[in-house]
Amino acid sequence: MDRKVLTAVFIIVIVFALLLMILLGCSQDPEVEEVFNVLGSKDSSSPVLVAVTSVSSSVIMLEFNEPVRVYGRLFEPLSARADGKFVFVSLDRSLLPGMRSDIKGRVKDYSGNTSGFTIQVWGFNPQIPEVLINEFTTKGTAKSPDRTELRIMTSGNINGMTLYCGVPNDFDVSVVFDDIDVRSGDMIVVWWTKELPEQVITETTVSEGSRVFNICAGSEDNLPSNNGVIVLCDSPALGASVMDAVIYSNFSQSHEGFGTKAALERAHWVMDSGAWDGEALDSTSSTATRSMSRLTDGRDSDSSKDWIITVTGGATFGNANTSEAY
Question: So what's the pLDDT on residue 120?
Answer without folding.
Answer: 86
